[in-house]
Request: fold
Amino acid sequence: MTFDASILKAYFVCGSQDVDKNQLVPTVEAAITAGITAFQFRDKGAQSTLTPTKRVEAAQQLRDKCAQAGIPFFVDDDVSLAKQVNADGIHVGQSDEQIQAVVDEVGNQMIVGLSCSALSEVQQANTISGIDYYGSGPVFPTESKADADPVIGLAGLQQLVSATTRPIVGIGGITVNDLSDVIATGAAGSAVISMIARSQDIQATVTAMLHA
Ligand code: TZP
Ligand code: MG
Reply:
């Protein structure tokens, strides 16, 4: 799948640790039906509630559902799982597998995203060819990531956007009320966990993302 920045508009990130037991697949299905533009399987090792086998099964199932809907399926921080399920993309953080190694290994076949929280990280990443987009540091305080970097705020997001020609997706504590502010920074969209995973009305939530 070729990369187009429009897929970053309504980017849902989720793993078993973010939802009640057995709710991962139904939640992602509802989000796909509602119109998300991309999905990232972020099932975090220690926090995952899935066995290794069930984890691969869930990834494969969600991968297939994304393919049926024509939206890209990303895997967070697990190149071998991404390859195993033939993901459209891989997303890594600064402390995950070295970005150059990831680009070298799968850059030809997958979309590559990198988390950049600080200006220096964006500047460094700009020198590496083959990265398609950046995820920001947490824009607002988040309850979904225990080891999140310091909050950068909307001004921090805008600073990152200004430092690169690559598209940036905002992430971290984004609620429905923040969506237009995030877009106003020049970000290509919002990536969210709880806004969708804990939504009482996933259709309305995703529609708001699409219209921001
Ligand atoms: N990376 C930076 S903040 C974050 C990740 C994965 C968590 C985002 O979750 P939420 O619930 O949308 O704040
Ligand atoms: Mg990571």
